[in-house]
Amino acid sequence: MASWYDYPQYFDMVFRDETAAEVHFFEKAFSRFAQGQVQRVLEPGCGSGRLVAEMAAKGYQLTGVDLSQPMLDYLARRLRRRGLNAELRCEDMTRMDFESPFDAAFCTFNTFRHLTDEKTALKHLRNVASHLRTGGLYILGFHLIPMDADPECTERWTAKHAGTTVHVTLKVIDFDRKKRREMLRVSVKAQKRSGDIERIRSEFPLRIYTPAQAKSLLGKVSDLYEIAGIYDFDYDIEEERTFDNDLTDALFVLKRR
Fold it and tell me: Per the confidence metrics, is the pTM higher than 0.90?
């Protein structure tokens, strides 16, 4: 059993197609909701750094934080290849410590759900808030689980880049609504240009949120954030959503009070 987070080159391939839409949304949200100019930006749980690199290329001052050193090493090489700069830290996203405040932060695609209990989730939200200036934004995206969700879920992706084809299967192998935890298994088959095949299987837990549970959680930090806007993973700034039971791919724009 390995962690697919130790294979950033494959992890990155699976999600890279979303990068342009996310970055476009970030900039639209900065313009629409942030108080003042956005320059210094934080990504907790930055992973392979596709968003850090793209935002840095647009002239923002980026700081990326992650617990995976292989991910950060991969990101450092990516930045060097492109002649870009960003501050990278191998730290816990609930205990970040910075001297200067940020204008904005973002954390998308379920990274937040790796915080598997409410105490840790709240600690993270408060930690980020402590490093955001008044009027700054935290863009937070994660999947919500409807009450009638099928716990036996399987998703598959195929991605190709530079002669390598990666097949990824994500399967829910345990689902406990009472404990609010699901266990995921990620199986990766990577076929390289040489014909060599690498296989990886990784399992990890994620916290479950229904729309009501997400609303309750954000309500507990309403002294720190206001919800400036609610969207989904279509990343369309003109299509605002409401906090209801139809919201499954949730993207919250939180504004620091």
Answer: yes
